[in-house]
Each structure stands twice: as C-alpha cells, then as structure tokens.
Design a protein that fits this description.
single chain; 7 helices; Rossmann fold; about 325 residues; binds zinc ion
Length: about 325
Amino acid sequence: MSAGRPGCLCGLDPSVEYGGPRAAFATLGGSPTWGLGDRFHEFAATRGHERLGVHRPRTPYGLGPQVEHYRGPSGREFLRIPTYGQVDNEDPLLRASEWKAFWILWKAGVRVLLVGGTSGSCDWRRAAGDESGVRPGDLVLPKSYLTRDTMPTGLPGTELEFCLAHRVAIMDDPFCPPLADALRSRAAQLPDFRFRRVHGPEAGVVLNRWLAGNGFESLATCRMLESSGRQTGMPIITGDCVSPVLARVCGIHLAYYHVVANWGTGLEPEDPTISLNRLYLETLPAVAATLELAFLAAVSEPTTCRCRELLRVRPAEYARAMSPPAAE
Ligand SMILES: [Zn+2]
C-alpha cells in the first residue's frame, strides 16, 4: 500500500505556499554519496561550489526535507535534497517523502533532475567470461524500469493530483536520453577513476525501481528478475529511484545513473553489506560527488528529447466523462 492515499495519516494542506529557493537544476543525491554523510557541501566547496543556504520548506504534506541551495564555479545555481528526500527515522511512504520532494522541485521550477542509485545486478550473465554482463563496478544508464510498488504519479492537492484525463505520461525513454549521454561523457572525464564498463541506454538495462524499505530483495525476487531478464534479453538491476512518472508529470527531465555495487541478494555467496559498506565509505562518495557536481555545473536543459512531448495532451471530452469535482 502506498502512503498518502485517502485515509493515510498525513494531513493535506493545499494552501501551503512554497518558501524555498528556486533553480532549474537539482539533484536528489542518493546512495552513491551516502558515505559523505552530511558533508556533501564540504566536498562541493573543494570543487568550487558554494552552498548559499539550507532550507526546510513546508509542503502540503507536512514539513519537507532539507533543501540545499548551491552556486557552482560557473555561476550555475542548483538545489540538492539529500537522499531522495528521505528523513532519518521517518518512514518515507507513511510520511509521503516522494510527494514532498517533488512538490518542492515542481514549485522551485526544476527542469532537470539528477538521481543516483546503487545496488545489485541480477544479470544472468555471471560467468567469468561474460564480460558484457552488468557486473559490480559498472556504471549503468538504464533504458527502462520496472517497479515493485505503486509509485506516486501525481501531487495531491494540486492540479497534478490526477491529471490522467488531461495529460497522460507515455513512459518511453523514462530516463532522458540526452542527459544519459551527458552523464556518460562526464563519467569518461572523471580524474583518476574509470568504471569497469559503462552500459548506456543502448544496452537495454532495466532498473527494478524501488525507493523505500528496510530490506534488500529476497533470493526469490532476484531469481525472478534474473529469469525475466534472460527471457526478455534486458538485464535487470535493482536500486532506488524516484517515480519516473511523477517526474514526467511535473515536466522534469530525469537523469538517472546507477553504480552496480553487488550481485542481487543470494545470487552470489557473499554478504553484500560487507562490500557495500566498503564501497560506500571508501571509493564511491568522491567519485559520485565529482560526477554529480560536474554534471550539474555544465548540463543544459535538453531540447532534442521527447520528455515533454511524451506527456500527451488529451481531448477535453475525457475529463468531461468523469464526475465533476464537488462544488466547495
Ligand atoms: Zn528529456
């Protein structure tokens, strides 16, 4: 069950006005930069990015997550909401963290959103000689996604609450292809670090998207994803990402990169948390933060993608085929 559906514990106050900073570019961070803890801004400062302020905006769904406002060396400003908008010790579904984060991004005027994720590969090609397989140490720019939960697809209390009759999101290219190209070229320019292999959208990798929960996938889930990938010829990775539908509905180009940290739980004998903790704390934070900052400092809003066109306007009859809203 998704939180925030009718009957949930969160209140809804549509009268709340956005009081935070505005920018066209943003990142929700994610597990690749977890190892920096609350010191992302210190790392950013060493690369010439100044943190201009830290905000905690109210949203219609309750107090929002932290919003950091940055200005890079080129003068480009961007926002950063740590770790997908999640708050320590708060259940992200129960507290509607995804609604809060996207309401902030939408109100702030964000057009390009960068999200990073990590976690397991369920690629069936795991033999030593399968060099083209999606393996730990690789960078993936997925082609498509699956989802294990009912994703949020609108923003309750706004004109985007349920816009299906007005605009429908076609989910080809959920992850903006020109932004994937930009991520790939930035990754190739990283100083002192090379990913084992980069799998771009042409590799057809599917992200089994998930956002919140206290466990990893079960062995059965991983076996199912492995088998499904073999059948469709599209290898599957598992990891955190926000709702691609919600990004599209909000008019935001979504850039997603994934660092493969381990094999899906149970597909290999070792305990993935051991290698994960080492990776998260030692290797990955500086690499991922450098990649994110370089991307945010230089990327421009794409003009050659279909992200906006794929939010299709529908005939007026469709909305009239529904019951009208109750008169206040
Ligand atoms: Zn796009």
